[in-house]
């Protein structure tokens, strides 16, 4: 894939969030609608095209931990909030931000984590767990070595301690397990077909109000 080839030729150790999602989308993994903007005017036009509310994030291949760096602004409802957030991010004191990611906001309360790790002994392994800000606290994650069968994907869902989150929830339908299984299997395929990818992190993998999973944040580590 061109994105991966270009990053390796440039000596990058990771893809930006935007490029990570573009790469994953080529494999059919659902990702948020978003645009890169280097100026306030470009951000304004992007938000108008995507539709409010939007999220604004600092963008670039070196920005791996945007939450810790305070480089995320969520649920911006209008142009005034957008431009204020753009000014805050681009004036960040400890981390230069040359461009921002304007991203659609996704409705839904349930968050998972999914990804890929390249184990030294077993090779590419796929993970699934409860996601969002509590991922490291809950530590509810299961693994399978690629390639995965559909049976493997469904077993991973059943092995989660918090698997009830996949069922109907607060008046919302259950998670589309077929779509989630497709995503999990595809992550394994990506790991097998792209040895230069060391890790993939989809956190959060948000469950939309119709039960469909979508990658709200994504990171691909190379090496």
Structure description:
- By secondary structure, the chain is of the alpha+beta class.
- It folds into 2 domains: 2-30 and 108-222, ATP-grasp fold, B domain (D-amino Acid Aminotransferase, Chain A, domain 1, 2-Layer Sandwich); 34-104, ATP-grasp fold, A domain (Dna Ligase, domain 1).
- Helix content is 32%, strand content 28%.
- The protein is built from 7 helices and 10 strands.
- The strands form 2 sheets. Strands 5, 6, 7, 8, 9 and 10 form a 6-stranded antiparallel β-sheet that branches. Strands 1-4-2-3 form a 4-stranded antiparallel β-sheet, covered by helices on one side.
- A hairpin with a 5-residue loop joins β8 (197-207) and β9 (213-215).
- It is globular.
- It starts with a helix and ends with a strand.
Number of helices: 7
Q: Give me the secondary-structure category.
A: alpha+beta
**Relative strand content:** 25-35%
Outline the biggest β-sheet: 6 strands, antiparallel
Supply the number of structural domains.
Answer: 2
How many strand segments? 10
> How widely separated are the two ends?
16 Å
CATH topology of the largest domain: D-amino Acid Aminotransferase, Chain A, domain 1
The backbone outline, from C-alpha atoms, is globular
Give the overall average pLDDT.
Answer: 93
Query: What is the annotated CATH architecture of the largest domain?
Result: 2-Layer Sandwich
């Amino acid at each position: 894939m061109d994105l991966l080839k270009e990053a390796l030729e440039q000596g990058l150790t990771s893809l930006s969030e935007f490029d990570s999602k573009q790469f994953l989308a080529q494999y059919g993994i659902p990702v948020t609608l978003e645009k890169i903007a280097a100026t306030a005017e470009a951000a304004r036009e992007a938000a108008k095209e995507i539709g409010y509310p939007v999220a604004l994030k600092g963008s670039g291949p070196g920005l791996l931990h945007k939450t810790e760096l305070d480089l995320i602004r969520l649920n911006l409802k209008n142009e005034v909030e957008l431009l204020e957030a753009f000014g805050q991010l681009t004036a960040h004191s400890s981390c230069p931000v040359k461009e921002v990611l304007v991203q659609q906001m996704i409705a839904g309360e349930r968050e998972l984590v999914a990804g890929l790790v390249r184990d030294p002994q077993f090779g590419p392994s796929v993970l699934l767990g409860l996601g969002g800000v509590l991922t490291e606290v809950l530590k509810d994650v299961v693994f399978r070595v690629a390639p995965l069968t559909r049976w493997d994907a469904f077993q991973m869902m059943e092995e989660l301690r918090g698997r009830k989150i996949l069922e109907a929830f607060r008046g919302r339908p259950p998670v589309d397990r077929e779509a989630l299984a497709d995503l999990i299997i595809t992550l394994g395929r990506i790991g097998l077909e792209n040895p230069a990818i060391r890790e993939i992190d989809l956190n959060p993998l948000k469950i939309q109000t119709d039960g469909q999973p979508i990658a709200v944040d994504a990171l691909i580590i190379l090496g």
